[in-house]
Write a structure and sequence with these properties.
With about 170 residues, the protein is an all-beta fold. Helices cover about 0% and strands about 55% of the residues. The chain is elongated and about 105 Å long.
Length: about 170
């Protein structure tokens, strides 16, 4: 049995199920929960649908089929603004989305990745082909580094065995 399902859009009931029973003892008949006898259903909402499949010998099998609803799942990788003019960035990774999609950021920025950012909040709106919407606000911070010197004095006057090591206590490098 080959089952093809189509996700339901976020703003309407347009999910689909198509069945193709293959094998011996044809023809196959279908009986759905709503008494339909077609090999496919359309205009479905999210949910579980049960179909009874019967071959020409009368052997039956029941199958539960889940039709999912579309959604957007995104992760945002933020690099904070750094001192000395190194700007921040936000890179978007989608775990689930229906292409094509649009992604719009505050300050009229567009795209999966935006760069050259200063410290502050950036609002994003993502709309996919199933009319699902994801809105979020991402904060770009400003990193600074706190450094502690570790000093090893010379062992004796006139010796060259002293050293200074700079240890990063906090903050991240660009």
């Amino acid at each position: 049995l080959k089952i093809i399902t189509t996700e339901v859009s976020c703003d309407k009931n347009d999910g689909k199920i198509s069945l193709n029973a293959i094998g011996a003892y044809t023809p196959y008949s279908y009986k759905w929960h709503d008494s339909s006898s077609l090999d496919s259903l359309t205009n479905l909402k999210e949910g579980v649908y049960i179909v009874k499949i019967q071959n020409s010998l009368g052997c039956m099998k029941y199958k539960k089929i889940y039709v999912p609803k579309a959604y957007i799942s995104a992760d945002f990788n933020v690099k904070n603004e750094w001192c000395k003019g190194v700007k921040g960035s936000i890179h978007t990774t989608f775990n689930h989305i229906n292409s094509p999609y649009t992604i719009s950021w505050s300050d009229s920025l567009h795209g999966d990745s935006i760069e050259g950012l200063t410290q502050g909040n950036y609002h994003v709106i993502i709309i996919d082909s199933k009319n699902c919407t994801h809105e979020d606000t991402i904060n770009v911070g400003k990193d600074s580094v706190l450094i502690e010197p570790i000093i090893n004095n010379i062992s004796c006057f006139g010796q060259n065995d002293g050293s200074i090591y700079l240890q990063r206590i906090s903050g991240s490098m660009p």
